[in-house]
Amino acid sequence: MPPSSSAILQQSFAIIDQEIGNHAFNRQEYPVLQRVIHSTADFEFKQLLRFSPNVIEAAIAALSQQVPIITDVNMVKQGVSTLVQQTFNNPLISAVEQVTTALPNKTRTETGLLQCLQQHPQGIYVIGNAPTALLALCHAVKTTAVHPSLVIGAPVGFVAVLEAKAALAQLAVPQIRVEGRKGGSAVAAAILNALLVLAWRQSNLSEL
After folding, report:
1. Which of 48, 154, 196, 200 stands the most exposed, by the fewest C-beta atoms within 10 Å?
2. In this structure, which CATH number among 1.10.10.10, 2.40.160.20, 3.40.50.10230, 3.100.10.20 belongs to the domain 7-202?
3. Is 23 designated active site?
4. Which of the following is catalytic: 23, 38, 120, 139?
5. Which of 111, 90, 89 is nearest to 100 (CA)?
6. Which residues lie across from 69 on neighbouring strands?
7. What is the Cα–Cα distance from 113 to 92, expressed in whole angstroms?
8. What does pTM read for this prediction?
9. pLDDT tens-digit profile of 8-66?
């Protein structure tokens, strides 16, 4: 079953279009920003969202090829599960669910993410909550053969968040990230959901 767009969603998008003002996002990037603003009602994301070169194309390819999607926490997984099932039905994994006990000096989410990186070194990684998980991912990319197909870096908070996003910005991996302290599970899910819709449209399987 293809994903559908409700009348309320379309009305919300129209309001965002009216209020967004000038921006430099291209026709593929803008729907991602649009979904993020819809999920947060926060137009400041217009200044915070960053795209690496050709990341949309890389994301579309990975999603359509059913590359596994790994989220840091369950809330992100729940936020994308409906569209994942309605589109390409990629394997969907929550890192924190993969372990019951954390490694020494690591969080459960970080531990689970490291395990997922071993199993899915080219997976799609969606981080909306845990900066420690994003830092672990960045370290693994720098020091091992891990090379994710896509990283969405949108942890929220005050501790290690800026450092994690700065580390991601230095990596030559396809990435979409939210600068600053803002982000969160809803934001990370909105980014991936927008990419799923773009990929589904491009697949010519459905008119959305």
Report:
1. 48
2. 3.40.50.10230
3. no
4. 38
5. 111
6. 92, 124
7. 13
8. 0.95
9. 999 999 999 999 999 999 999 999 999 999 999 999 999 999 999 999 999 999 999 99
